[in-house]
Amino acid sequence: MKRFLLSLALLLPMCSQAQSHHEIGIMAGVSNYYGDLQDKVFADYGYKPMGGIIYKYFFNPHLGLRFGASYAQITAADSLSGSQVKRDRNLSFASSIFEVHGGLELNFLPIDIDRMKVTPYIFAGIGVFYYNPYASAPTGEKVYLRPLSTEGQGLPQYPDRKEYGPIGVSFPIGGGMKFLVGKTLVITTELGFRYTTTDYLDDVSKSYVNLDTLAAFKGAQAAQMSFRGDETKNWDGHYYPDYKYQRGDSKANDWYWFGGVSVSIYFRAFGNVGQYIQAHCPKMFKH
User: Fold this and answer.
1) CB-based burial label for 113 (10 Å; 0-12, 13-18, 19+)
2) Phi and psi dihedrals of 208, rounded to 5?
3) Segment 133-150 mean pLDDT
4) Do the beta carbons of residue 26 and residue 262 sit within 8 Å?
5) DSSP string over 22-36
6) Is 115's pLDDT higher than 90?
């Protein structure tokens, strides 16, 4: 990804004298997640609605900057897994995602009012997002998991378990197809993946800790939400996990992704939008 961004950045000086344009619009689609509770990129479940706004400034018909803000939800549950081991673990989570991002976008073909009307494109960048995983307790109560330190985060007995915050960094990368409709609208279909700097989107990363210790420092609910195998039909009541008994996989961080359609307005100058609409919009929009 770093090489991709560097290659695009080296093209910027070549664009200073080219025809530029802006695109401002909205995006709607679906979101999903890939991590400890979901090991398939395109899962059979868990798709939630997402929406956002997008702004792009193109130096020329090929290369531009993009900025966006999005809201989405992600969720997963072991009870829906095809693995018996995961169903016995019985963890679940959901979280809202608020994201802002910026990056570079490359059109493979020179899409423009007077040139190509369709092009594939790719993008890459960096983003910041807010998340706060929660799950439903056996009583049906909505419980936020981060304050419970379900893997011993912040407890003095487990100095290797650092608390995680609600803000993360993501690295968006993806692509799609872009269509210039008439002289005013740009419609895109896009799929974008977000690699994150956290393994706690789902509040699962490492191993269990001693549940008695967790209950003593964080309360009985923390122990209850840390280990939920005793809520399954296969529970025989003969064991509880102790420190270092595997809970998640800390070798890889979590991902989330968006797929959707955006509709944007295409124009060439902020200071002359009215005249641009008069010149380029269909007659039904003219005064």
Assistant:
1) middle
2) -70, 160
3) 96
4) yes
5) EEEEEEEEEEEEEBT
6) no
127 pLDDT higher than 90 = yes
Q: How many CB atoms lie within 10 A of CB 161?
A: 17
**Mean of pLDDT values over 144-162:** 95
**Cα–Cα distances in angstroms (integers) from residue 214 to residues 84, 142, 153, 164, 183, in the given order:** 26, 20, 10, 17, 62
> pLDDT at position 154, please?
95
What pLDDT, on a 0 to 100 scale, did the predictor assign at position 25?
A: 97
Task: Establish how many alpha carbons lie within 13 A of residue 76's alpha carbon, considering only the half-sphere containing its beta carbon.
Answer: 29
| Residues 136 and 127 sit within 8 Å (Cβ to Cβ) | no
Q: What is the pTM of this model?
A: 0.85
Nearest CA to 50 out of 250, 264, 260, 237 is that of 260
Asked if 171 and 127 count as a contact pair (C-beta separation under 8 A), the reply is: yes
Backbone region of residue 154 per phi and psi (left: phi > 0; alpha: psi in -120 to 50; beta: other values): left
Element (H, E) at 250: none
- Residue pLDDT, tens place only, 246-257: 999 999 999 999
For CA atoms 44, 46, 49, 52, give the dihedral sign.
Answer: negative
List of residues 6+ apart from 209 with CB closer than 8 A: 151, 152, 155, 157, 158, 161, 226, 243
Domains of the chain: 2-131+166-207+246-285 (2.40.160.20)
- Residue 27, pLDDT score: 98
Cβ atoms of 257 and 34 within 8 Å: the answer is: yes
Q: Which amino acid is at 223?
A: A
Q: Would you tell me how many other CB atoms lie within 10 Å of the CB of residue 169?
A: 13
Task: Give residue 68's pLDDT band: very low, low, confident or very high (50, 70, 90).
Answer: very high
* pLDDT digits 0-9 by tens, 221-237: 999 999 999 999 888 87
